[in-house]
Write a structure and sequence with these properties.
Blueprint: E1 11-12, H1 27-42, H2 44-51, E2 55-58, E3 64-68, H3 71-93, E4 101-105, H4 152-163, E5 172-176, H5 182-196, E6 202-206, H6 207-219, H7 223-231, E7 235-239, H8 248-263, E8 267-272, H9 284-290, E9 294-298, H10 303-316, H11 323-332, H12 337-354, H13 360-366, H14 368-374, H15 380-391, H16 405-421, H17 426-432, H18 438-454, H19 456-470
Helix pairs in contact: 1-2, 1-3, 4-5, 6-7, 10-11, 10-12, 15-16, 15-19, 16-18, 17-18, 18-19
The structure holds adenosine-5'-diphosphate (ADP) and magnesium ion (MG).
Length: about 475
């Protein structure tokens, strides 16, 4: 089988046969030729953005090791230019089945560090001499961060730290559950400082990475170099500090590093999935140190923020998504922003693939698993009860055959909310409303959808009910 590029992976296995004709060009010439052809093919702008920065190292057996400066770029190149690079390189080598081609993030470029997804096939056993990897996600900027009540303090604090001349609060501790934007804010801080104060040495790494580097330095007996490396930084960011818990020697080292930096008034930024006082595996003295500066909580998202994030994201991608679908997603995917984004992406990908517009129905179908996991189990009974109370009718009217507008309309609202807020099918909903047919439910859903636009009072009623039911 001919090797193929993996859309999101980094490695493609393509083996070269021994009797394939071997071109007389040197590897450098081959790669130059590939570059020329790529440039001609994709145009100047795309070439400059994505392909010029590639560094290629022929592996000697017909393969190619390509380095890119960032993870984002790696994914982009693999996704968009893989086939071209492969085919041009194969042409150059005259190979039927060329050897392995690999795209990896370069190590040792600048004074940044990240734990994020090290290149898997890179041999990085060598001494890094304090140089670490630049790996900021270019999407994680302040501009792309949507601010709402739950995250406004963390955002403001992050901005202040990024723009300040001296550490305004030290440390800044960002506390929040998974997928709520901690890493995003930290990258945004790093990116801003890089732009504003290029001379400053900023190191960003996860607590796990910190531990790994420290333990490695113990093993290779270069603890001094390790200490130097961290104690000479201007800004130190440690992501997901909860993972340091329990490892005593690492905690000890972290504690000393921390103190040394604070004493010199260097900025420290820490993130954790809970507040410092709740880091139960952390030593008491460290816990209290972490709380010395400003602890900024990132709270769970609310509906407004989720909707804002979806709109922002859709705009960024120039994707045309009906407002009702965005509202649906904002109501239903409440776990965290990562899942919300993932849901949106899946819906977009699906609609692209099948060439159909996005509707609530397709969304429900495509995101079945995600929606179920996010289901807060609002029951049809809850909805009926709330709606009856709200409109001041008897609960029994939800099941009764009465058609008077005063009861029929609230009943339709209830059906509509059942469709929006639960994963029940139309027939299931119909059954719970006095054994009505699924077409009746469908009609109710359409009707209320329409009326919400036309009748502001009803629109508010529905909105209010949704919120009450969701809290
Ligand atoms: P954490 O580090 O807290 O687990 P991340 O920073 O990795 O979470 O965020 C998860 C995803 O959600 C990222 O793609 C990030 O860009 C996005 N995200 C989180 N909060 C926001 C926000 N307020 N505005 C825009 N995107 C956000
Ligand atoms: Mg994170």
């Amino acid at each position: 089988m001919e090797g193929s590029w993996l859309a999101l992976g980094t490695i493609m296995n393509i083996k070269r046969t021994d009797n394939a004709p071997i071109s007389q060009n040197t590897s450098d010439e081959k790669w130059s030729n590939v570059r020329l052809r790529l440039r001609a093919k994709v145009g100047e702008a795309a070439y400059n953005s994505w392909l010029r920065p590639l560094e290629a190292f022929p592996t000697g057996d017909g393969g190619l090791h390509i380095q890119v400066p960032t993870k984002f770029m790696r994914d982009w190149v693999v996704k968009h230019y893989a086939d071209l690079i492969r085919s041009f390189w194969q042409d150059e080598c005259g190979a039927v089945q060329p050897a392995e081609i690999e795209v990896a993030v370069a190590v040792g470029k600048e004074g940044f560090s990240s734990s994020n997804d090290r290149p898997r096939n890179l041999n990085n056993s060598g001494d890094q001499k304090g140089n670490t990897e630049l790996d900021l996600d270019p999407r994680f900027t302040f501009e792309n961060f949507v601010v709402g009540k739950p995250n406004e303090l963390a955002y403001a604090a992050a901005r202040r730290v990024a723009e300040a001349n001296t550490a305004p609060f030290n440390p800044l501790y960002l506390a929040g559950g998974v997928g709520l934007g901690k890493t995003h804010l930290m990258h945004a801080i790093a990116g801003t400082i890089r732009g504003k104060y290029p001379g400053r040495r900023v190191v960003y790494l996860s607590a796990e990475r910190f531990m790994y580097e420290f333990i490695r330095s113990l093993r290779f007996k270069n603890v001094m170099a390790f200490k130097e490396q961290f104690r000479s930084v201007d800004v130190l960011m440690i992501d997901d500090v909860q993972f340091i818990g329990g490892k005593e020697s690492t905690q000890e080292e972290f504690f000393h590093t921390f103190n040394a930096l604070i004493e010199q008034n260097r900025q420290i930024i820490i993130s954790g999935d809970r507040s410092p006082s709740d880091l139960d595996l952390m030593e008491e003295r460290m816990r209290s140190r972490l709380g010395w500066g400003l602890v900024a909580d990132i709270h769970a998202t609310d509906y407004e923020l989720r909707l804002g994030i979806l709109q922002n994201k859709a705009e960024q991608m120039s994707a045309d998504i009906p407002r009702t679908v965005m509202e649906f997603l904002a109501h239903r995917i409440t776990s965290n922003v990562r899942e919300l984004e993932g849901g949106l992406n899946r819906v977009l990908a699906y609609s692209n693939l099948v060439g159909q517009p996005i509707t609530i129905e397709t969304t429900q179908e495509v995101l079945k698993d995600l929606l179920r996991a996010n289901d807060r189990r609002i029951s049809i009974e809850d909805i009926q009860k709330r709606v009856a109370e709200h409109f001041n009718i008897r609960l029994g009217d939800m099941h009764s055959p009465r058609r008077a507008r005063a009861v029929a309309r609230p009943r339709q609202v209830a059906m509509y909310l059942c469709k929006q807020l639960t994963t029940r099918s139309l027939p299931e909903i119909g059954r719970k409303f006095g054994g009505r047919d699924h077409t009746t439910v469908m009609h109710a859903v359409r009707k209320i959808d329409e009326l919400q636009q036309a009748d502001a009072t009803l629109g508010e009623d529905v909105e209010l009910l949704k919120r009450m039911l969701e809290n």
